[in-house]
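Notes from the 1:1 (GR / supervisor)

We went over the backlog. Supervisor wanted to see one worked example end to end before approving the batch request, so GR pasted a single chain during the call. The sequence is below; no edits were made to it. Supervisor asked that the structure be written out right there so they could see what the output format looks like.
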Amino acid sequence: MIYLFVAVLLFGATAAIVFALNLRKQEQGTRSLRDRIGVQAPSRGRATGGAALAIERDTRMSSMPFLDRFLRKLTVARGLELLLYQAGSSMRVGMFLLIMAAGAMIAYLVGYVVFARLLHALVFMVVGGVAPLLILHHKKSVRMRAFSEEFPDALDLLVSALRAGISFSSAMQIVADESPEPIRSEFAIVVEEQALGLEMREALTNMANRVDSLDLKFFVTAVVLQRDTGGNLTEVLDNTSRLIRDRFRILGDIQTFTAQGRLTGAILTCLPLGLAIFMVIVAPEYFHKMWDLPSGRAVLGFGALMQLLGSLAIRQIVNIKV
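Structure output shown during the call:
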């Protein structure tokens, strides 16, 4: 029964991949035909250094219309779509879910073939299904970190433009032209939304919802309050930039003070694994009982679980929020 279930899932995943590839090929053919007949897709925003600034994004969650309509009704799918955007991925939600399902099925088969036990295969299936999500979270954290590191310089450029007598909208356009990614694209979207008739407050709020950055929320709050209550916007933004730089300085100090704890966590995590690999290479007959006997494999699994929990606990201890 289990083999039949796995075979059906693999067949469904293969059929879905083939169907998605065919739809993608059709879309590429349509795009190629549009280019040959001279119909260009709308390209808004300016370019820097000859590079095209792409601020439009395909918001469909799947190439298949019925699956797209189904996914739009799910809150989880909308959250996953936002996560894909924050990670800078152009992949659709449907394709990402298909990758997660395929990874889970492949990991299940590997676990069942290697260990010949259902419990181990299920553990492998969970790990294989969650792995793409963890990779996506990592890409998001890298992109958001790059945004936070470049954001103070973007604020300084915005303040300089305002002091030169340029309007706030034009200053935002300058930031969109001169700043590196991902700030460039996010500010270009704000400028485009305002050009299409959206109020600046709503455009800035949309950017704060798209980007998971506390510094950006400080900036949006400061601008919205200034537009409601009045005041010197240049001074407000200058103080906001100084506040963000102070936060980075404090974060750097925290990284220095917690370096010993993070190094201890890395050593405690890698030492048992390294020792096990050393024993397998040097004395395989001494270690083979742990691998051959069911009780030995259970002990190894329990030890790996405790290692994971210990690593997460140490990470939470040294992860100090500012």
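Supervisor's comment: Residues 36-52 have pLDDT under 50 and may be disordered.
Batch request approved.
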